[in-house]
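Practice problem: predict the structure.
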Amino acid sequence: MEREHDMESRAPAGRLAGAARVELGELVAVFAGGFVGAIARAAVARGLPAAPGTWPWATFAVNIAGALVLGCVVTYLQERPAPSRYLRALLGAGLCGALTTFSTMMLELLGMIEAGRLALAAAYAGASVGCGLAVVLVATSALRRVWPR
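Answer:
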């Protein structure tokens, strides 16, 4: 019995020894960025309410804005030394992660489909993906022109 307990108490430590460790500073950065992103998304949603089955401008706007910011952040951090080791966590995972909302977009698409607005749903899905990709490409290109390698 003692031997089983001893083995069980050592097993989790052994499994965690090889796992990546997350620093407290990184968690704080994600939390802080996430707080700002969530507040911004809620403010936009409150300012641009959408009736079910209509174009959800608030979600569309925050998703495109988040893609633009993420394109800038990733391009900058890939090509320049980061001014802070927590910048990617703060802006990428935190701010953009909380600002953008794939799950809300999916629920809105489902609402459009259930309301029989198939063309609107297809346009919204296509515009969301297409515009998101376009702003990432524009952000990347613009940053590379401003700050050449």
